[in-house]
Amino acid sequence: MKPNDMxxxxxxxxxxxxxxxxxxxxxxxxEKIMKDQIKILKKFVPFLKSLLEPGxxxxxxxxATSPMSFLEQWTTGWVIYYLKRCVLIFTNKRILHFxxxxxxxxxxxxxxxxxxxxxxxxxxxxxxxxxxxxxxxGRKEKFYYIKSREFRKLKTLxxxxxxxxxxxxxxxHSLCPKCMTPLxxxxxxxxxxHLEFKNMKTATWMSILFPGxxxxxxxHPILGLMDAITEGFLLIILIINVMGALERMELWGFVLFVxxxxxxxxxxxxxxxxxxxxxxIPVDKHVGAVSFVPGSxxxxxx
Length: 302
Prior knowledge:
Layout: H1 18-21, H2 31-41, H3 45-51, E1 58-65, H4 70-76, H5 80-83, E2 85-91, E3 94-99, E4 110-114, E5 118-124, E6 130-135, E7 140-143, H6 148-157, E8 173-175, H7 200-209, H8 213-217, H9 221-245, H10 252-277, E9 290-292, E10 299-301
Helix pairs in contact: 7-10, 9-10
């Protein structure tokens, strides 16, 4: 192997608990597990170097699907499980939640779950491998589709996740990707470094004024294109039938029906945009853009 081979954990220069992270549920070291964990971790090296606190070490990385509502699933369909992919990094202090793209590459968004903020940590294998968390605030969340190997490993680590110092938020909360300050709910600007995030007001207006606008604004162009085609089709039918209804009064009923469909489509777009905006997406997509140089201990900012 070359000295800068990224399959070597020491080249990541991260505080990894190798005995836990690179072993199976029987605490047996497995080279394949090590390679798989490093493959996930190396994508997040720049973020973790800024995020990790003194004395914090990485225990396990897990690919999963972020929490979602039933209405999100019902109105989006199976593709939601690709749109809501995430990586959970378990440390000895907290869980770091990174929303990702469909291929599990990171977005510029991160949230944390302090172990002290949890009232319940439950792994369930019924109808899929789920992680259910109930917070001290009363809020409940589910993370879906955890791989079986990581699911079994988490079972053995579960006792480690029921103690810890609580935060003043008492549930999962987002962090500024630039300075790592906890962000205030529904406040789309960092109180520390003043980094601006995409906001719900703009997302709503974009959804109303432009076909697929809310999706494009929230960073989901494929959904935006699909929505634009649907809205454009409904809008053309509406215009044609309004013109026809000016001469034939019986067409106004159909005009009303199409208008209601278009209104519902707009509401769905706004509803989805709201959930994506809550990931706290920086207005400047290049903010905090970083690259990790293999074999180097330095993180280079672009």
